[in-house]
Write a structure and sequence with these properties.
This protein has 414 residues and is an alpha+beta fold. It folds into 3 domains: 222 residues, 3-Layer(bba) Sandwich (FAD/NAD(P)-binding domain); 91 residues, D-Amino Acid Oxidase, Chain A, domain 2; 52 residues, no CATH class. 35% of the residues lie in helices and 26% in strands. α1 runs parallel beside α4, α2 runs parallel beside α9 and α10 packs parallel to α14. The longest helix has 25 residues. The relative contact order is 0.16. Bound molecules: flavin-adenine dinucleotide. The site of flavin-adenine dinucleotide has 37 residues, from α1, β8 and α9.
Length: 414
Amino acid sequence: MEVKETDVLVIGAGPAGSVAASIIQKSGLRVHVVEKEKFPRFVIGESLLPRCMEVLEEGGFLEELKKKKFQEKFGAKFLKNEMIADYNFSDQFSEGWNWTWQVPRAEFDQTLVDVIKQRGVPVDFQTTVTAIEFFDDESSLTTVQDVHGVEGKIKARFIIDASGYGRVIPRLFKLDKPSVLDPRKAIFAHVTDAKRDQFDEPNRIIIVTYAPGTWVWIIPFSNGNTSLGFVGDFEFFNQIEGDDSAKFRKLILGNEYLKNRFEYAECIFEPRKLESWSATTDKFYGNGFVLTGNVTEFLDPIFSSGVMFATVSSQLASHLVVKKLKGEKVDWQIEYTTTIQQGVATFRSYVTAWYEGTLDTIFFAKKRIPLVQKQICSVLAGYVWDQNNPYVKNHTTEIKRLARMIENGMKISL
Ligand code: FAD
């Protein structure tokens, strides 16, 4: 049996995997990527956040991505009946990028992987990790299997697990932990959007509040199609008769904005469903490995934070792996877990506040305070590590306080 050798083995070639491979390769260490699927492959997660642009820039991906002419994204617009909350990333509190992209992920992920391959990183597609053995010196021997069932082995000094929903190391070593968020479901498709120009600008994600706890994403692409998805609890979808395609059509007709825009839209593929996606793990690192991207924790799609966390966590983890393999000491708990968890906890407060309705009160308030708008806009852009922003630093208390203030007619001072 063939045994390959590398310094760092990266599992998964999604955004987290490609970012990791790029940073490791730039450091001069050997890196090898294994990916279960054949690319391009469909994956959900199409609306990016400005914060991930910094990582894509460091990874050397921007030039190739720009050539793809993806739809530029300048903000996020929330609609509830006649009410509108439009956040423009150029009007932010935190320093940083004020735009990003809306991307069909098959093409986006393929572009990232092409960049690392062009730089000489070996990527084995249709190769699935089935087992890993770790040794006392933190090195490991990974068993992989190709589509024909042929097994191979990869010896590595360190592993970065960027396997997304595959959750390879948490599953193999029983590190999975249930999320504190309620389980939810999404039904979605890519649709034609011929009436796009009569409605909103294509350069932002539109979130429509559909019913309590249920919302819709509208993510226009530059190819003229739009990603349209409904998210709610299981009970909500169970009440609607028919299969997923029938439910999808009925849901479009159940909201005036959606009916006017999408009643006659064609589905590019039959509506698909995803459910119970929130998951986390006991630990983000261990003897000879670190977890990045969705493997660490995926919260909820409402604020499009998935790819941002995937890329930011991979960037940080990869720098720490380089530091470690070059002989320096790394405090994984403080330098990695605590940092990532701080950003995750911030978004978790906003996700909870969204489903509790607290954010509705804030987003659609009649009187809005410009500085607070900017601070919340920075959270929505993914700048969830800026401790100068009170809506980051005191995320658990500030949103509740602001909602109370609005409900009391702004009688409490800031
Ligand atoms: P992935 O993109 O999942 O890549 C992991 C790769 O690992 C895959 O290619 C997989 O094939 C490979 N793999 C798995 N198992 C193995 C194995 N055993 N061996 C080898 N390879 C393996 N995020 C956003 O940023 N914006 C959005 O608008 C958004 N919308 C979403 C809507 C829904 C309904 C859901 C559920 C999620 C959404 N997300 C969104 C989240 C987004 O999908 C993920 O956060 C993102 O894809 C994570 O990237 P990743 O690189 O960590 O993992």
